[in-house]
Amino acid sequence: MAAVAAILLTASPALAAPSVSVSTLREVSAAQLADSLAGRGLRVQDATFAGVDVQAGLYKAPMLEKRNSSGVALSTGSLINADPQSDADVDFTRSSLIGPNTSLTTTGDFGGAGDADLTAQAGVSSYDAAVLTLTVKPKHKHLYLEYGFGSEEYANWTAQGYNDALGIWVNGQLCSTVPRTSEPAGVSTINPTANPEHYVPNFTDRTPGTLPTEMNGFTKPLQCHARVTPGTPVTVKIAVADTLDGQLDTTLLLAAKSLYSSPSRR
């Protein structure tokens, strides 16, 4: 299974690693995000995004092995650093993704709407949702998407109940679950104490870590799988949102070309 970019940020510190770079929806379109994700065995028919333009984009990580060096990122904050001269950049300061980790409390607070599905999943109000919705036509009966996520909530905030929410739904059915369980994957279900085998920290106590990303922690590779009807259009909804309040960023990473269909279960 191809790993998403953040997963391989644990490369040897002896090797100088270039920073992650991002092109947001200020430079690219939702259709280009979809094209980046689309792999074998399917065709993208439509793509839409809801949120602020800096909450979604294409990322590149030159330090990674080629097949894992790019993809799509969605964030509750900004994927890019603010331009201090721009009136459009007053709701955020630094990127939620681009490293190094200089703060344990990176926040973009846009005052944006939440997402009904994530609110229902989390059981609390949601804010600053970033939602990418795709319509794809698969050739085969199994649909896959590889993903991971990281968060500023990992620096001890999860223990206080601040757990941002994320989800991937295929035709309305959640497929982003903790491996071998039916639990929704998220900050509350993958962290230092819950399913820690899927978690990588990027901080120690209250000190930012040295891995080349702003995220305080992130997951190992995860995979969405769903059964679909070949030749019939499928709706894939991908979303992330703050919960309880609009503070502290969470970022969802989707590996390039990892949305694909297959005739058999992997």
Number of β-strand runs: 16
Quickly give the structural class.
mainly beta
The overall number of domains is 1
What does the radius of gyration come to? 17 Å
Proportion of β residues? Answer: 25-35%
| Largest pleated sheet | 9 strands, antiparallel
What general outline do the C-alpha atoms trace?
globular
Task: Tell me the series of helices and strands, N- to C-terminal.
Answer: EHEEEHEEEEEEEEEEEE
Measured between the Cα atoms of the first and last residue, the distance is 9 Å
Q: List low-confidence stretches.
A: 1-16
Estimate the mean pLDDT confidence.
88
Number of helices: 2
Assembly type of the chains comes to: single chain
Binned, the helix content reads under 10%
Organism: Cryobacterium zongtaii
Protein name: Peptidase
Keywords: Signal
InterPro entries: Choice_anch_L (IPR049804)
Provide structural commentary:
This protein is 6% helix and 34% strand. It has 266 residues and is mainly β. It has one domain. A hairpin with a 2-residue loop joins β7 (165-170) and β8. The model is unreliable at 1-16 (pLDDT under 50). This is Peptidase. Residues 1-16 form the signal peptide. Keywords: Signal.
Describe the SSE topology:
Layout lengths: L20 E4 L5 H8 L4 E9 L5 E5 L9 E6 L40 H7 L3 E13 L3 E10 L13 E6 L2 E2 L24 E3 L1 E2 L2 E2 L8 E3 L2 E6 L6 E10 L6 E6 L4 E3 L4
Antiparallel strand pairs: 1-3, 2-5, 3-4, 4-15, 5-14, 6-12, 6-13, 6-15, 6-16, 7-8, 7-14, 9-12, 10-11
